[in-house]
Amino acid sequence: MDFTERTEPFALFNEWLSEAEASEPNDPNAVALASVDPSGMPNVRMVLLKGHDERGFVFYTNFESTKGHELLASMKAAMGFHWKSLRRQIRIRGPLERVSDEEADAYYNSRHPQSRLGAWASDQSRPLTSRQELVDKLRAAEEKYGNENIPRPPHWSGLRIIPETIEFWKDGEFRLHDRIVFSRDSSSETGWSTQRLNP
Question: Model pTM?
Answer without folding.
Answer: 0.92
